[in-house]
Amino acid sequence: MQNITYLDNAATTAVDPAVVDAMIPYLTGYFGNPSSNYSIGRLTKTAIESARKNVAGLLGVKATSIYFTSGGTESNNTAIATAVTAMGCKHMITSPIEHHAVLNTVAYHCRQNGVTSSYVALGEYGKVDLQDLERQLKEKAAQGIKCLVSLMHANNEIGTLLDLKSVGELCKTYGAIFHSDGVQTIGHYPVNLSDYHLHFASASGHKFHGPKGTGILYVAEGTKATPLIHGGGQERRLRAGTENVHGIVGFAKALELAMDTFATDQPYIQSLNRRLRAGLLKHSPAFTFNNAEDGLYTVLSVNFPEGIHPDFLLSYLDQAGICVSGGSACSSGDDLGSHVIQAIGKKGSGATVRFSFSKLTTEKDIDFALETIGRFLQSHYKR
What we know:
Elements: E1 5-6, H1 17-23, H2 39-59, E2 66-69, H3 72-85, E3 91-94, H4 100-113, E4 116-119, H5 130-142, E5 147-150, H6 164-173, E6 177-181, E7 200-204, E8 215-219, H7 234-237, H8 245-260, H9 262-283, E9 288-289, E10 299-303, H10 310-319, E11 322-323, E12 325-326, H11 339-343, E13 352-356, H12 363-380
Parallel strand pairs: 1-11, 3-4, 3-5, 5-6, 6-7
Antiparallel strand pairs: 2-8, 7-8, 9-10, 10-13, 12-13
Helix pairs in contact: 1-8, 2-8, 3-4, 5-6, 9-12
InterPro entries: Aminotrans_V_dom, Aminotrans_V_PyrdxlP_BS, Cysteine_dSase, PyrdxlP-dep_Trfase, PyrdxlP-dep_Trfase_major, PyrdxlP-dep_Trfase_small
Domain Aminotransferase class V: 5-367
Enzyme class: transferase
């Protein structure tokens, strides 16, 4: 395989070697089923509960509030299904820039369960308009309609951050259920989930150097979630099926490491983000950006100059060994482009590319990407 310059960490991250080391015993000698009553079953059950306790402590909540899942999609589905089928929510308020794990789930329940939904208005960079959110909540409350508000903590494409505290206060005031997809922030910021009047929050381990197929659903104390998967009594009867023991151990270790090194990782990654932003502007003032500088520090969404086709650009970068994610409001054939870029009104004719960074990204990676983009512009962009 050619040398890879990996700049797509919002898609997934490399598993930290220390996480692998923590998982290996549960892939080898400690293989017991956690539901078994004999010694090696009790050992793996203890590992799960220890991981739960550690995760809860890092997120500022009780261990009984943490449920292990396969990732953000399952967690989002469980939270939304619970709100609609068990908590009496008849209207869902979300935004047009949510992940499809929320948007498609909301659409499903509108079709299947006769509930309604609406989008909150967005401002610059896709920031939630809190006045519009309050208007909608107030209107529904006056009609006696209970709402679910499902808004992501940070957008996965453009890095826009949600004011969790303000949204939580509004939900509390108007009796709404509050769910937030925290897939891009849990593991990247210290978060005390109990501070925000959240009923549900979702996270995925592979976004912060943990294993794929692992996640959590936070369920606030006093909130009773309903199963999405039926069968046995695992996860206190919320999620049936034999637990992914090594994955759960890996999730907890990855979160522990992320919080241990946050104070040094965050400014370092932020510096890489700024280095790329500044370098692109040196190439051409025609570059623009879809995220504010005070947004999610791991993500930079870039609009390339007009006339650069996204597929051609991404292919060029891929051939150079640079891994990035594409997204634009342009449509060609069945490719409708990024729903996020469309929703925030960025309809230029150039390519939009998401670069995203981690603690493993180096300045050399950034400089190589800038050099490669410079060569591309010299060869293919006519100013």
